[in-house]
Amino acid sequence: MSTDPSSRLRHLPSTDLLLESTVVKELIEKYPRAIVVGSIRKVLDGVRRELLAGGGPDPDRISSPETYVESIAGEVARYMRPSLRRVVNATGIVIHTNLGRAPIAPEAFDHARMIAERYSNLEYDLEDGKRGSRHDHVSRLLCHLTGAEMALAVNNCAAALLTTLHAVARGREVIVSRGELIEIGGSFRLPEIMEASGAKLVEVGTTNRTHLDDYRRALKPETGAILKVHLSNFRQEGFTAKVDTGELAEVAREAGIPLLYDLGSGAFLPVGEGGEPPVASELRAGPDVIMMSGDKLLGSVQAGLIVGRRETVEKIRSCPVLRAVRPGKVTIALLEATLLRYLDEPRAREQIPVLRLISRPFRDIREDADALRDQLLARDGLQVDIEITEGESEAGGGAIGQPPMATILLGLVFDGIRPEDIARRLRMQDPPVIVRVRNDKVWIDPRTIFADELGLVADAIAEAAQAARS
Q: pTM higher than 0.85, yes or no?
């Protein structure tokens, strides 16, 4: 057979010929024919590119369907596998935005599964036999847990802020400290969400220092609200000044306007020493409305929670934007099931993964680190140097007020293999394992590895190292 690339292209099997292969016929029995045909074409296109570049299959194998069936089966499997997958979080960041934020309590899914699989009273009042409100299912619990007069849930915290501003201050001015004009993940910028809501931003103070008089001087007849914003993902230190929530609430009351507080993470229980203050204590300081996330320190599903004074929350509830951002039945079911656990603090700390991971005893993490090291050293042929050292885990999720937590780290060095290569191959495992790379080492923090995942991590590391050497 000629070795000329263009000549070799003529010997590639046709799609129809490959469809007659026994393996491909079996694939068509299991998967949609269109997916199998598309996978064949994708494999053949890749081989054509290889041939034109001077590579590709050996000349004596190029025309055989058996040369391609494994690649076709692999392509079909990749296409049919869900894109959203479970991963093992070995980074030590508990509320990892890129990894889905808060893991949800398994017990909450028992309730949510029943609601999802059957009909429910989502918007039906069982007592009166009339139409009800989906917001009532979580409002009672949010009010009980925070001391709010009224509460709502929407589909995320940005939606809570957008809807609140639109309802309370559309077409009017909203005063915000320059030091709180934040940008968080995904290029979400506070000034842009304010513009979208129809409110007019009025900046006061400077980047590092804002005083009470700055707010007072900015008050006008056009002022619709004062907005206080949790710094979320950065910290100001040094020559700084900010206004206490209680003082700001007093200024707002004197002016007859609401104080709105975007609290970000929103803890419902104290979490560690010096951590984020609970929502109930922040609400007692005087803001009319607090907005926060449901999938951060609360440890539930993605949601935006709005709690506060009845008069202000009623305005938000009647806002037409609310319908566009209202949560679905599964979100409400998961949120309600999580909130029910907060009625019993010991139960919440035991069953809600975020609370349990943040408060994991140091000795337990040390035991897991030792167990993982022992499992790695027991793998035949795995050439790895393991350093065990003390370090810090992070709460993550923008909970900047939550202090770092002492942990135990495993630093791995593989002879002749770059740590970036190991990290990449770990991401290709099933399930993928996500680690950190720093100072030419692969770092693993057992804090965020669940007990039944330690063996998976050890297996994944051994397989990744073997693949890198082959």
A: yes
